Amino acid sequence: MTSNETYGPESIRVLDNSAYVPNVIPTYVALGFLDEYMGRGWIVGSETVERFYPGERQLVPRFVSVLHDVVAERKMTTQIRQEVGSQGHIAVISPELAAYFNGLYPLARPRGVTYPPDSDGCQRSVMSAEIRTEMFPEMLSREYKPDEVDCRFSFLLGCHIRYGNNNSFEFANATHKVRLLIQFLERLGATWIKWSWTVNTAPVRHRIEFGLDAVLTRFLGLKGESGAWK
Length: 230
Known about the structure:
2 domains, about 230 residues, three-stranded antiparallel sheet, 9 strands
């Protein structure tokens, strides 16, 4: 038996994703923004998309801008408004967007009811869910495919805008979100990943540091590992 096929180093294609330019998907940027302190919680029938702490005031316009992109992406009709609470917390409100994002979470479970009751004397159910791998298309290839990776890059971007500082993320509790970020960073070119957390504290503070490749550097707007977040 003879064969004209030859095998050697010259016949092996080296996988190189370094020139890839992800497309931003607004829905997944917004999902990255959302606070998952104890999972995502919402009151049934609530019109609140997300709340921000008083110290996060500068992030609200960026989140609202992303939501406007979601509205265009989904061809929705809605009004987005803000309310500032007595303690300075900022609620971003849109009934249509609140229903849309809450509906993306699988396996939502009851957490309890509102207390004290509303002004009409009624108690309302509170639901809870967690961001999960199942909310993203399965990643079948090591070569970047837009349908598989753009949503993950977009999620990292949203999370980085709210919780990022150069080549790191830092936030409280939400261990499930930490594990998802690590999974995505590992698949999207991080050269190394370090996870550290506080001990015997409440809440637990998590810090995820990672080594940057060319795609992450460009997409997150960084200047290499020693650069500053813009």
